[in-house]
Design brief:
By secondary structure, the protein is mainly α. The protein has 9 helices and no strands. The relative contact order is 0.06.
């Protein structure tokens, strides 16, 4: 029997009335809201680049457990189920974490970062895979591992952003080059069209010039033929 039902049964057996039962319901509601607020606070404080931390899961868990945890927590903090104003942000972050862990490539990158953090921590502490601290990690080692994971994830995200920025810059240069080539072809076409449109005018001007030259020649000679000069000798 659930604790709530047991308490209600005791109240009834002791002759308690509606007021006592209402008080129990109020306490249960208060406890439920407290749990919701606590979970919302935990999610928002979790390192958002670590989807495992957001869902409060250990690395390497099966997909079935990821789905189970997500369903339980999403029902607990759903904005329709609580008046907490931060619930929408927490719910969105929870959904994003679940999506990342269900994506094989994204989860693999995260697992690699977590494994790298463990290796770096072992190197810093001069430990091996056979060291007791590694084989049976205590809470202190786990916390140190998580802090190292944060460092590795931040470094990985910074490198990813630089790569994206460099790629965007390269794509921008390529786009500008294509735009310039397109503009050059457009100007050449416009020049060719303009040249063709003035072709008849240029031909007419040349004909007028030629005709004018012939007319001028006739006027200079007065319309008379030139006499041939006799060759002396």
């Amino acid at each position: 029997m659930a604790i709530k039902e047991e308490l209600k049964q005791e109240v009834k057996e002791e002759g308690g009335g509606k007021d006592e039962l209402d008080a129990l319901d109020a306490l249960e509601k208060e406890a439920s809201e407290f749990n919701k607020d606590a979970e919302i606070d935990r999610i928002l404080k979790a390192f958002k680049l670590d989807a495992y931390a957001v869902l409060d899961l250990q690395p390497g868990v099966p997909e079935s457990e990821i789905k189970l945890y997500y369903r339980k927590k999403s029902l607990l903090i759903h904005p329709d189920k609580t008046s907490n104003p931060r619930a929408p942000d927490a719910f969105d972050r929870l959904k994003k974490a679940q999506t990342e862990l269900m994506d094989e490539k994204t989860r693999l990158r995260l697992d690699e970062c977590i494994a790298d953090a463990r290796t770096l921590l072992m190197r810093d502490r001069k430990l091996t895979v056979d060291s007791p601290e590694v084989k049976s990690p205590d809470q202190e080692f786990k916390e140190a591992w998580r802090r190292k994971t944060v460092e590795v994830l931040v470094d990985s995200e910074q490198r990813r952003r630089k790569q994206v920025k460099a790629q965007m810059q390269e794509e921008g240069r390529e786009q500008r080059k294509q735009d310039e080539e397109l503009e050059g072809r457009k100007r050449r076409r416009e020049h060719e069209v303009a040249w063709e449109q003035t072709r008849e005018g240029r031909i007419g001007s040349w004909r007028d010039f030629q005709q004018g030259a012939k007319t001028s020649g006739k006027e200079d000679t007065g319309g008379k033929k030139k006499k041939k000069l006799k060759v002396l000798g």
